[in-house]
Specification:
single chain; alpha/beta; Rossmann fold; six-stranded parallel sheet; four-stranded antiparallel sheet
Length: 543
């Protein structure tokens, strides 16, 4: 989406209101006109829906715009426009931002790019980074949203996210029936009836947001299809239920397992650890309805576990479940786990020889970055072409891989994905069309966790923070460390956890929206389980 600017020869208009995590009462909005770059006509402000979406009119079309996504895009476009010459400002307090493993890796691999854009970022351990400065014209309250969007862009294949206005290279603007900024644009017909129908659809925002209509009487039995796939060594069907926290993934996973004789594989990076039950929202025994749940409570909190470990474990579990004629169902919000497993990502076993990293650092200090980059050009021209000469971290990483394995880093990346995916999969995504509803559920969930003993678990993690390294960086525990250190009140820490959980939910949505083929369901709809069952039934019946 192009940044919104006042139309030429018109007086400057007030900016769009910034989205808030909490619903707020607002006065009647002023009638505003917005000019969208490359659009056929200017947008005319009409009103708001759920205090979350902007309702605008353009000719005979009705447009619905996510306020928060639009604001984030404005910041991104402003940053991109001045890339390379951006004055920065120090934050009053350094900001610790939680990211996915892939997002964090992408950010740390592009520190020079971020610095040129006016952002100072450093590693903070675990899944966190520390943000110390932002561009001078960016509000400090928006710093986290800006960094998260940049991380998401960098993690999903953009080598120079700040120089790209859109993923396609075309100007970003509202186009009919396209998904941009995380929400659909809904176009109505020329008549009033079309406009009303469009508004009705936008109010419910059925899966993306509207699930297709499925036949209730498939010609083939899903059970026979499942049996055939196993007997003929065809791709096994695998189901996944994903979405942000507090959307009801666990309950839907159990319901689908009951309906289709399935078993659940947890795709949650924290539920693997024993003794961390409340903070990780593990399914209670009575909530399983007797459905087996795998990859839960398998490790002590001081044991490491990686995405490569998950892919190996989930592959073994899937083979066993499918061999017994049951349906494997991945349930969880760790997007990297789900995507790596379903896409068949292969992780090479690589151990850096002792002293190699230190040796490369010494060579860099002695020879300089230009000489190290020339060495990379000679060893791995393709990797060198994808890395800026000033990005010393990535240059050394590529050289480290080459010296350790004798293979080019570009070869490893090419071999990490198979030519075709190993499973025939269906991914169901849960979300609420009203963002405020999701945030209310998250806040309520935190309150219930505190009542259920979350503070005791957090104290356990705090007392063992030197050995429980993963848990010590996990949302749900580290927010209470200031309380145990007597530097913050319990109420303040609980509020911090709610905010961190809301931010994490936004990042989860960003991740899953980048996955292809996700069928989104309205988590708040009374018929969500019935809709999901119809979708799964048709998927399985196709064989």
């Amino acid at each position: 989406m192009a940044a919104w600017e006042p139309a030429p020869d018109e007086p400057e208009r007030p900016p769009l209101p910034e989205a808030s995590d909490e619903p707020q009462q607002s006065a009647a909005p002023e009638q505003l006109g917005f000019d969208v770059q490359d659009g056929p006509e200017s947008l005319r402000y009409v009103g708001e829906i759920f205090r979350t979406y902007i309702l605008a009119e353009r000719g005979d079309e009705i447009c619905i715009i996510d306020k928060h996504a639009a604001h984030e895009r404005q910041l991104f476009e402003k940053l991109a426009a001045h890339y390379g010459d951006v004055p920065s400002q120090l934050l009053l307090e350094p900001l610790v931002v939680e990211l996915s493993a892939e997002e964090k890796t992408a950010l740390l691999a592009n520190l020079d790019l971020l610095e040129s854009a006016g952002l100072e970022v450093s590693d903070f351990g675990g899944s966190s980074v520390c943000l110390r400065s932002v561009p001078a014209d960016v509000e400090q309250s928006s710093a986290e949203d800006l960094l998260v969007e940049l991380a998401a862009k960098l993690a999903h294949g953009s080598r120079d996210a700040l120089n790209e206005r859109t993923e396609s290279g075309a100007p970003f603007h509202l186009l009919p029936r396209r998904h941009q900024g995380g929400r659909p644009h809904l176009a109505a017909g020329a008549d009033g009836a079309g406009r009303k129908n469009s508004l009705r659809r936008s109010a419910s925002l059925l899966p993306p947001w509207g699930a297709p209509a499925f036949s209730n009487s498939p010609e083939r039995s899903w059970k026979s299809s499942l049996a055939e796939s196993c007997d003929k060594n065809q791709k096994h069907p695998v189901l996944a239920v994903v979405g942000p926290t507090a959307t009801g993934k666990t309950a839907l996973g159990v319901a689908l397992a009951e309906a289709f004789e399935g078993e659940v594989i947890s795709a949650d990076s924290m539920q693997i650890y024993k003794g961390l039950d409340v903070g990780t929202a593990k399914v209670a025994p009575e909530e399983t309805h007797g459905i087996p749940h795998h990859a839960v409570d398998i490790l002590e909190p001081d044991e490491p576990f990686s995405v490569a470990d998950f892919v190996t474990l989930a592959g073994t579990l899937e083979a066993d479940i499918s061999a017994r004629g049951r349906l494997p169902i991945l349930v969880g919000g760790t997007g990297l786990y789900v995507q790596s497993f379903l896409y068949g990502v292969r992780f090479a076993a690589e151990k850096t020889p002792d002293g190699l990293r230190e040796q490369l650092a010494a060579e860099l200090a002695e020879k300089g970055p230009e000489a190290m980059y020339k060495e990379l050009q000679a060893a791995d021209p393709e990797a060198a072409a994808a890395i800026h000469p000033n990005n010393q971290v990535r240059v050394l990483r590529a050289l480290e891989h080459f010296r350790a394995t004798g293979k080019r880093l570009s070869e490893q990346k090419a071999q990490s994905l198979p030519l075709e995916r190993p499973y025939r999969s269906l991914v169901l995504g849960l979300d609420f069309p009203d963002r405020a509803q999701l945030y209310r559920r998250i806040d309520l969930r935190v309150d219930k966790m505190l009542d259920a003993g979350l503070l005791d678990e957090a104290k356990l993690v705090y007392d063992h923070r030197q050995t429980y390294r993963t848990a010590a960086q996990a949302i749900g525990y580290k927010e209470f460390f200031p309380y145990f250190e007597q530097t913050a009140s319990l109420e303040a820490c609980a509020d911090k956890l709610k905010q961190a959980s809301r931010n994490y939910a936004k990042r989860q949505l960003t991740w899953f929206r980048h996955m292809d083929g996700v069928v989104w369901l309205d988590a708040g709809a009374p018929e969500v389980q019935q809709c999901a069952c119809r979708t799964v039934q048709e998927f399985l019946s196709k064989g």
